[in-house]
Amino acid sequence: MGSKSGDRKALGALGEQIAVDHLCKRGLRVLGRNVRTRLGEIDIVAKDAETLVFVEVRTRRSGAFGTPEESITRAKRQKLVHLAEEYVQACSVPLTDYRIDVVLVELLPSGALRRLEWIGNAVEA
Predict the structure, then answer these.
(1) Domain count, the chain
(2) Greater confidence, 24 or 96?
């Protein structure tokens, strides 16, 4: 594994931890992180009262590759919907009792937090 891949994984893990801390402070209960399904991985699975919440975390350290929100393409949104649907079917959760949120994290080159934005119900299922 090259250093760029390791750096990207470390950046992603840091962004996910920042997102988990933020969501927990706002009353969500985290059920799982990096949850694997047959179709891929869900960054965070949480509960907001009785609603199951799937959270995609997008982290950037600089604008070189665009903003975090620009990285959520149409294809990525479709994949998130498929991942959520697969999870709820496997867990027998009613299809109306979940949503897909996005947490955007931007860090300064020093690693300090520049911006944190939680967008509820960001992806239409």
Answers:
(1) 1
(2) 24
